[in-house]
Amino acid sequence: MRAHRSRVITIATILLITAGIAAGLTLLLRGTGGGTHDTGRPAPKGPAQIDLAREVAGYTSRFAPGRGYLRPGQADREDIASAVGLLLDGRREQAEKRLSQRDFTVRTVVDRPSGHRYAEVADRTDTAAAPRGWGRVYIDLDHRPRWSVQVPHPGFDLGTEQLGVRVLRGSPGGVMVIAGAHRKAGLGNSADVAHRTDTVFHAICAELARRAMPGIQLHGFAASAAPDYDVIASTGAGTAARPEGRELADALRGHGFRVCQAWVRSCPLEGRTNMQGRTADADHVPFLHVEFSPTVRSGGPPADRAADAIAEITRRWAAPPATD
User: Fold this and answer.
1) Amino acid 34: pLDDT
2) Residues with Cβ < 8 Å from 186, sequence gap 6 or more?
């Protein structure tokens, strides 16, 4: 009898201890937000952890000639560009509402390799059977945006999109604007955003220029087009970025590149007809049009050295003006 009573007491003690541990764990989980307690509101979602280079590579890998582009209407262009402006002003809720009306989304991402936070503006149709090809934007959330890097021909000027990621990572306060389709995706040259004003890409870049944000636009040339050079640097249709152009050329040469300076001599692919450059010139905003050889755009050390040279300019653009 005593043995039976002892077993009963032992079992009861174990059950009491187990219940106490379970209750303690429940309180601990609720205190740290790890439980399932229903507060009546959805649990907040943290920023998406990504590798920006891989994200952009996956995005642009779907681009191809002859498909994936729909010409936007004027209201589409204006609303998306103005919503990007709202994001730059810190008015995210209003920006998200306006972008949602145009089937665009906004999410916060953390680029794991750099640790930087960005607002990603993306087209909901990107992964659909018939994407519109209106592009993406990445905005630095850790610093006040002050400059842009523009990639008008991803998938056509191969490697420029990855060089754009390097440039964005290299300085604070950047905004990266990426076209959403191959240059030859649309009818005629409708998807060639560098030479048209009726695109979402141009509308966004024009909004940035209106805000006096200087920009650098990245292009690529075939080796046979300029065999004596690695880089062709130009200020496009304007001259506002002439000081930065000289500094960039010096920095690129310092990193071992052969540079053709369009303001010094006649160079191929000077970007005089580039529409974003013309808009920047009309607003008296610095704009650099830079063409890179296949070797520079292939990645690895050459691309790193090119991005380091560009960073000497974008870091100065990122500095607050004396009047701030």
Assistant:
1) 37
2) 69, 70, 71, 133
Identity of residue 284 = H
Contact between residue 287 and residue 217 where contact means Cβ atoms under 8 Å apart: yes
Query: Which token pair is 95?
Result: 């920006």
Query: In the block, which residue shows the tokens 């636009």?
Result: 217
Radius of gyration of the chain (CA): 26
CB 63 within 8 A of CB 123: no
* Of 309, 56, 280, the residue nearest 159 (C-alpha): 56
Q: What are the pLDDT digits (tens) for 92-133?
A: 999 999 999 999 999 999 999 999 999 999 999 998 999 999
* Whole-number pLDDT of residue 323: 60
Residue 15's SS3 state is helix
Q: Which residues have a Cβ under 8 Å from the Cβ of 105 and sit 6 or more positions away?
A: 96, 99, 121, 122, 124
Non-local CB neighbours of 140 within 8 Å, separated by 6+ positions? 116, 117, 118, 168, 172, 173, 174, 175
Report the first-to-last Cα separation within the chain, whole angstroms.
87
| Three-state secondary structure call for residue 100 | helix
Please give the single-letter amino acid code of residue 98. R
Q: Mean pLDDT per segment of 10 residues, for the chain of length 324 residues?
A: 46 46 41 37 72 98 96 98 98 98 98 98 94 98 98 98 98 98 97 98 98 98 97 97 98 98 96 97 98 98 98 96 65
Contact 71, 186 (CB under 8 A): yes
Q: Which residue has the tokens 């040279």?
A: 309
pLDDT in the model for residue 46 = 86
CB of 259 within 8 A of CB of 302? no
DSSP H helices, 131-256, are 160-170, 200-210, 242-254
The residue count of the chain comes to 324
The contacts of residue 37 (CB under 8 Å, 6+ apart) are 30
Q: Taking a C-beta distance cutoff of 8 angstroms, is the pair 84, 211 a contact?
A: no
